[in-house]
Amino acid sequence: MKRANPCHLARRVLVPCIVVSAFLPALVGCGSGALSNSVRQEIGAQVLQQRRPMTACYKRALRRNRALGKTDLVLAFTVDPASGAFRDVNMQGGSGCQDPQLQQCLVQLAQGLSVARAPDKPVVVNYPLSFSIRRR
After folding, report:
1. 126 class by beta-carbon count within 10 Å (0-12 exposed, 13-18 middle, 19+ buried)
2. Rounded CA separation 42/44 (Å)
3. 111 CB neighbour count, 10 Å cutoff
4. What is the CA radius of gyration of the chain?
5. How far apart are CA 45 and CA 66, in angstroms?
6. Which terminal residue of the chain, N or C, has fewer Cβ atoms less than 10 Å from its own Cβ?
7. Is residue 130 domain-resident?
């Protein structure tokens, strides 16, 4: 027997949603030489793997402030060439977010990330994140 999807109940349900870019439009390699596609893809994969924990950060922020609504942020970090670790992680710009706890939660998630194939030179990444509430 098929289980009913709780999102398709008669009343409208608010569902927190995160949109994480599947590409890195603001990925910049410092120094000369192009960034390899494999490193670019691995950076994107590392951020995408954090989609559920990032959504959990947003859900906690919504519990603190139901009026939070659509939030666009930019996760900024540098990929260290020696270790592949994400360092100097911070939140830049963005709109609609007056929740420092949300920003800190996202920074903490990214601080633990790294890539196995470290780039030849430091890579500065500005990764857009968009959070919203979708009605079902």
Report:
1. middle
2. 5
3. 15
4. 17
5. 30
6. N
7. yes
The predicted-structure confidence for 75-127, as pLDDT tens digits, reads as follows: 999 999 999 999 999 998 766 567 889 999 999 999 999 999 888 889 888 88
Q: Give, as one character, the DSSP assignment of residue 113.
A: -
Rounded to two decimals, the pTM is: 0.74
Work out the percent of the chain whose per-residue pLDDT is above 70. Answer: 70
Beta bridge partners of 57: none
Domain count, the chain: 1
Q: Residue 2: inside a domain, yes or no?
A: no
Q: What per-residue confidence (pLDDT) applies to 57?
A: 92
Taking residue 56's Cβ as centre, other Cβ atoms within 10 Å add up to 15
Task: Indicate whether 64 belongs to any domain.
Answer: yes
- How many Cα atoms are found within 13 Å in the side-chain-facing hemisphere of 13? 10
Element (H or E) spanning 58, and its range?
helix 51-64
- Decide if 133 contacts 17 (C-beta within 8 A): yes
Domain that holds residue 45: 14-135
Pairing mode of beta strands 123-135, 14-20: antiparallel
Q: Are 33 and 69 in contact (CB under 8 A)?
A: no
